[in-house]
Predict the 3D structure of the following.
Amino acid sequence: MSLCLAAGTLLVSLGAGEITLTWRHSVQKTLWEEVWRDTPAGLVMAQARIQGSGAGMEAPPEARLEDGFWRWTPQLPPQREIVMRRSGATADWQVCIDGRCRPMGDFLPPQADPVILRACP
């Protein structure tokens, strides 16, 4: 299984069945990370992590502080796709594969918006 990023007619295979999406909150500047896995049922968020709280980004009660991040496993049903917006008002998304993070702009042009994460066809 492999994940792809799609924007308009562009489709980029990430060559991985698990990725981490990271971004900074536009107001709090707090780092947020989500680990997504491609499964037969759909995309599953395996873990969410946040470095702090504020501006509506509080970790839930079940979160545990480890290595400077509040970590938890969200109880979401499998998703068909994840839609990401790129406003230009904040730093671009980071896509991490096997611990190596790269900006979304390394995969798709800066004007590509929205970007959709989904299983590759």
